[in-house]
Design brief:
- The complex is a heterodimer of chains A (559) and B (158).
- Chain A folds into 3 domains: 169 residues, Rossmann fold, CATH 3.40.50.970; 164 residues, Rossmann fold (3-Layer(aba) Sandwich); 170 residues, Rossmann fold (3-Layer(aba) Sandwich).
- Helices cover 38% and strands 17% of the residues of chain A.
- Chain A has 21 helices and 20 strands.
- In chain A, helix 18 links the parallel strand 17 and strand 18.
- Chain A starts with a strand and ends in a 23-residue tail after the last strand.
- In chain B, a hairpin with a 2-residue loop joins strand 6 and strand 7.
- Chain B is built from 4 helices and 8 strands; from the N terminus they run βαββαββαββαβ.
- Helix content of chain B is 28%, strand content 42%.
- Chain B is elongated, with a radius of gyration of 18 Å.
- By secondary structure, chain B is of the alpha+beta class.
- Chain B folds into 2 domains: 75 residues, Alpha-Beta Plaits (2-Layer Sandwich), CATH 3.30.70; 72 residues, Alpha-Beta Plaits, CATH 3.30.70.
- Classes of the chains: A alpha/beta (559), B alpha+beta (158).
- The structure holds thiamine diphosphate (TPP) and magnesium ion (MG).
- The site of thiamine diphosphate has 20 residues of chain A, from helix 16 and helix 19.
Chain lengths: 559, 158
């Protein structure tokens, strides 16, 4: 039977087991929306901005481990989606974004709502396609989903001209992908791995440096096993929060610019750093020339280009962490787990010397205590998303994460406005858990229109605004490095967040004490509708410790 | 790792598709790698093309370039080595009054010939190793060339 290109898009999504898509229609994509209307299998969630759609798809992907899907129209629909693509690219999140395009015959004529979409997305996708034949649709979709989820995952963009979605053709969805030029290496080199095991045996201060790749490859169980087998302590990057579990005695804490004293000291003093799915980001290493000077470095990653990019690596292993770590578990059986006791003691001493900490006040709430409170009340029952800024770092520092995929944040791009829409995607993917978004008074306004989406589809995200009346993170830098010249970061002018939430049909709370906060949170969970909890916090609280940008990791400001 | 900056030739085998050149060029621009020259043409009777890139950088940068190129989906193979057999074409246009015998002798010394003589000038074409192409350009300066173009390098593994 011959079907339209638009119908093929629907059939391809079904073949990929996609049952929820986020999107926003427009002229060039209308054929696809018409087919969406005619069917019942795929649920479409109409976000109120294309950026929201892409972030929702990303939140969905991060929590479920499945490919998230978003659909937008040509021109402004697509350009609104670009920040979302870039965010997914930097965080290696598997999403597929489908955009409409002007008809093939009009491409290149500056037609209405024409923009060179693949030209723009080339720089911020793992791969992209402009479909020029209706007979290519099936293959392109099959490839797109495969590329998005395999190897080092990432966003794939498919641009489809309007006349292609109108044309008829035969549809046969391929069973296999065959891309001779794309064969991600999955199994690590055994010899290299044995050398690494050898190095572990010889080391006295080894350290597991855990990155987002562990989450992506579902390897957190294996990492916990390896840590337990060997007694090697671990630090987590922002993207790896939850991998070890906050209760794990071998987890030091987060590492990097706002990592704990003990974690950063461990990185600086280790004699063997074993990087697992991490990429030596400048927010982690601090000044490169001073980074881990005394350490040998092992790097296990699926992406060969991550290895030796910034730090010279002594033991490189290219492969899927899940394969490599399973093998490591076998090779490490019987390892003396007491071997590194002295090293563990040094680390614990450091941690007691300068634990992650803050001063409470009798007069004003501290952001950290709100995060800890949510942790006490909800623990594993919540998935935690964040926006970008101080509140993001406090969330990463103080929430007691218990599992991988519990934490969803914009790491690589640092996109304000990511939190709320992505928390919508999180809730859609994992309906049995509370979806919390820790946000700031600045960030929340960057995609506030998604209140309407959350109300319409009854997606009860709870936004906790840690309200400091500032673009706090920038204000902190101004205070510390620009003599407190508060240039354009004072957000004293604010909406009434309670009324704002209510005007959309959600619920709003304003709280100034812990008791009020508890009540608001429990009420919001109980009411099960989208909420804004506006928490007045200490305006001048800073995120500490802090490694000033470009400084050495071991030179932390502690107060 | 050596940080010595030198000239490198990178040979890239890619699937024949319209967007592939912009992917490769975009990668160089986006990551701040430099392109001294670039040539591209389809490989006869195959669905692949060969791109030859001449770049200047230290070994670490060139290793990164190779890996980043390999990450592009339509890239089949990336080869970088010092012992490529290299070849390049140069064309130069000289004033009509140039001494033909002398110019012809120069061209022959560089695997070349005089391609055309017209009222606009004399066009000479040579084809040689890129270093010798450079030598040709220096040597030809005494004939006051009006215009010189180089093709960029093609390279084959020995
Ligand atoms: C889209 C975007 N624009 C600008 C920035 C730069 N920036 C980083 S943090 C920050 C302040 C965020 O303020 P808020 O959301 O109130 O969070 P706080 O730091 O106060 O907790 C800004 C402006 C950014 N990360 N993203
Ligand atoms: Mg703020």
């Amino acid at each position: 039977m011959r079907i339209s290109g638009a119908r093929m898009v629907i059939e391809a999504l079904k073949a990929e087991n996609v049952y929820t898509v986020f999107g926003y229609p427009g002229g060039a994509i209308m054929n696809v929306y018409d087919e969406l209307y005619k069917q019942k299998d795929i649920k479409h969630i109409l976000t109120r901005h294309e950026q929201g759609a892409i972030h929702s798809a990303e939140g969905y992907a991060k929590v479920s481990g499945e490919v998230g899907v978003a659909i937008v129209t040509s021109g402004p629909g697509f350009t609104n989606a670009v920040t979302g693509l870039a965010n997914a690219y930097m965080d290696s999140t598997p999403i597929v974004v489908i955009s409409g395009q002007v008809p093939l015959s009009l491409i290149g004529t500056d037609a209405f709502q024409e923009i060179d979409a693949v030209g723009i997305s080339r720089a911020c996708t793992k791969h992209n396609y402009l479909i020029t034949k209706v007979s290519d649709i099936a293959r392109v979709f099959k490839e797109a989903f495969y590329i998005a989820r395999s190897g080092r995952p990432g966003p794939v963009h498919i641009d489809i001209p309007k006349d292609i979605t109108a044309q008829l053709g035969d549809f046969l969805y391929p069973d296999f992908v065959d891309i001779p030029t794309y064969r991600p290496i999955t199994r690590g080199n055994r010899e290299q791995l044995e050398k690494l095991i050898n190095a572990i045996e010889k080391s006295s201060r080894p350290l597991l440096y855990l990155g987002g790749g562990i989450v992506q490859s579902n390897s957190s169980g294996l990492i916990r096993q390896i840590a337990k087998l060997t007694g090697i302590p671990a630090v987590e990057t922002l993207m790896a929060r939850g991998v070890m579990g906050s209760e794990n005695p071998l987890l030091i804490s987060m590492v990097g610019m706002h990592g704990s004293y003990a974690a950063n000291m461990a990185m600086s003093e280790a004699d063997l750093i074993i990087s697992l799915g991490a990429r030596f980001d400048d927010r982690v290493t601090g000044k490169l020339s001073e980074f881990a000077k005394y350490a040998k470095v092992a790097h296990i990653d699926i992406d060969p280009s991550s290895i030796n990019k910034l730090v010279d690596v002594d033991y490189p292993v290219v492969g899927d962490l899940n394969f490599v770590l399973s093998e490591m578990v076998n090779l490490l059986k019987g390892f003396n787990s007491n071997k590194f006791i002295d090293w563990q003691k040094t680390i614990n001493k450091n941690d007691q010397l300068h634990p992650l900490n803050y001063d409470k006040s009798a007069f004003i709430l501290k952001p950290q205590e709100i995060i800890e409170r949510v942790g006490e009340l909800l623990r594993d029952r919540a998935n935690i998303s964040t926006d970008v800024g101080q509140h993001q770092m406090w969330s990463a520092q103080f929430y007691p994460f218990s599992r991988a995929r519990q934490f969803n944040t914009s790491g690589g791009l640092g996109t304000m406005g990511y939190g709320f829409p992505s928390a919508i995607g999180v809730k859609v993917a994992d309906q049995n858990r509370v979806s919390i978004n820790f946000t700031g008074d600045g960030s929340i306004l960057m995609n506030i229109q998604e209140l309407m989406t959350a109300v319409e589809y009854n997606i009860p995200v709870i936004n906790i605004i840690l309200n400091n009346n500032y673009l706090g993170m920038v204000r902190q830098w101004q205070t510390l490095f620009y003599d407190d010249r508060i240039s354009q970061t004072d957000l004293s002018m604010q909406p009434d967040f309670v009324k704002l939430a209510e005007s959309f049909g959600g619920i709003g709370y304003r709280v100034e004490t812990l008791e009020e906060f508890d009540k608001a949170l429990l009420d919001a969970i109980d009411k099960n509708i989208v909420a804004l909890i506006d928490v007045k916090i200490d305006r001048r609280e800073n995120v500490m410790p802090m490694v000033p940008a470009g400084g050495s990791l071991f030179n932390m400001m502690l107060k | 790792m050596s940080s010595k900056t030198r000239r490198h030739i990178i040979s890239v085998t890619v699937r024949n598709e319209s967007s592939v050149l912009s992917r490769v060029a975009g990668l160089f621009a986006g990551r701040g790698y430099n392109i001294e020259s670039l040539t591209v043409a389809p490989i006869p009777n195959e669905e692949f093309s060969r791109i030859t890139i001449e770049t200047i950088g230290d070994q670490k940068t060139v290793d990164q370039i190779e890996k980043q190129l390999n990450k592009l989906i339509p890239v089949l193979k990336v080869v970088e080595r010092e012992d490529f057999i290299e070849q390049e074409i140069a064309m130069a246009k000289f004033p009509v009054e140039t001494n033909l015998a002398e110019l012809d002798a120069l061209c022959r010394a560089f695997n070349g010939k005089i391609s055309i003589i017209s009222e606009n000038g004399i066009i000479a074409t040579i084809s040689d190793h890129p270093i010798r192409v450079g030598a040709f350009i220096t040597a030809s300066s005494r004939f006051s060339p009006i215009e010189i173009i180089r093709s960029g390098v093609v390279a084959m593994e020995p």
